[in-house]
Every structure is written in C-alpha cells, then in structure tokens.
Amino acid sequence: MTYQAFNKELFGIVCAAVALTFSSGSFAAVDVDAAKALARENSCFKCHGTDKDKDGPAYTKVAAKYRGKPDAEARLIHHITSGEKAKFPDGHEEEHKNIKGKASPEEIKNLVDWVLSL
Q1: Which tens digit of pLDDT belongs to each residue from 83-106?
Q2: Contact by Cβ (8 Å): 118, 108
Q3: Do 34 and 107 contact (CB within 8 A), yes or no?
Q4: What is the distance between the alpha carbons of residues 79 and 25, in angstroms, rounded to a whole number?
Q5: How far is the C-alpha of 118 from the C-alpha of 114, rounded, in Å?
Q6: How crowded is residue 41: how many other Cβ atoms within 10 Å of its Cβ?
Q7: Model-level pTM?
Q8: By C-alpha distance, which of 110, 108, 90 is closest to 98?
Q9: How far apart are CA 26 and CA 89, in angstroms?
C-alpha cells in the first residue's frame, strides 16, 4: 500500500469515527417514552403534533428548522422553560407554556433531544 493510499484510507476511517461519535452522542440516549410522557403531562400535544401542525408547528417541522444548528438544543430548552413569546401563523403572539419547575433539566433535555431527533 502506498503512503497516499494509506493516508486516504486512514482519513476515511477517522471521518467515519467522528461522524459516528457526533451522530450517536446526541440522540442515542433519548428515552422516547419519557419524552412523550413529559409532553403529555405538560399538554404539549395540545398545540403540537408529532408530524401534524396544530396551533403550533409539528415537531418534525421544529426539528427540520433547527437541524444542523449548533445552538438548537439550547434554543429549544430556553423556549420551553422561559415563557418567551410563541408566534402564530395568524400573527398573534402568546407566552409559550413554561415547563421549568415541573421537570428536571435532564427530563427537559431528553424532551428537546427527542424533538430534534424527528
């Protein structure tokens, strides 16, 4: 094997390892049942469907909007714990229901990671 061929093969292996590390690290530990239970407990499904819009966007649309953004998890955690305004298609705004205090930070992170995994 030539030096160039070895470097090319090594580069491919390193890239695959890095991709596997990042792709499995974010979503592999998601407890889907716990995330859905927390969403039900906090009436999240009243306004959001998993793949169907309701008063709020479907979670699949939320995931698509934030896909690839490095601050996605932090932004969504802030959104559901701060009571910031949610904007509706008709133009009106309401405070987003705040789940802070009703769930642990780990449970909230799990919920957000589940949404982002869709």
Answers
A1: 899 988 888 999 998 987 779 999
A2: no
A3: yes
A4: 23
A5: 7
A6: 12
A7: 0.74
A8: 108
A9: 31
C-alpha–C-alpha distance, residues 22 and 77, integer Å: 20
Closest CA to 83 of 63, 103, 100: 100
| Contacts of 49 by beta carbon, 8 Å cutoff, 6+ apart | 58, 59
Please, what's the b/e burial string for 78-113 (b: 16 or more CB within 10 A of its CB; e: otherwise)? Answer: ebbbeeeebeeeeeeeeebeebeeebeeebbbbbbb
CB 58 within 8 A of CB 49: yes
Q: In one letter, which amino acid is 117?
A: S
Q: Residue 66 in contact with residue 72, Cβ under 8 Å?
A: yes
What is the number of other CB atoms lying within 10 angstroms of the CB of residue 2? 7
Angle between helices 3-27 and 105-117 (to 10 degrees): 120
Q: List pLDDT tens digits, range 21-51.
A: 344 444 458 999 999 999 999 999 999 999 9
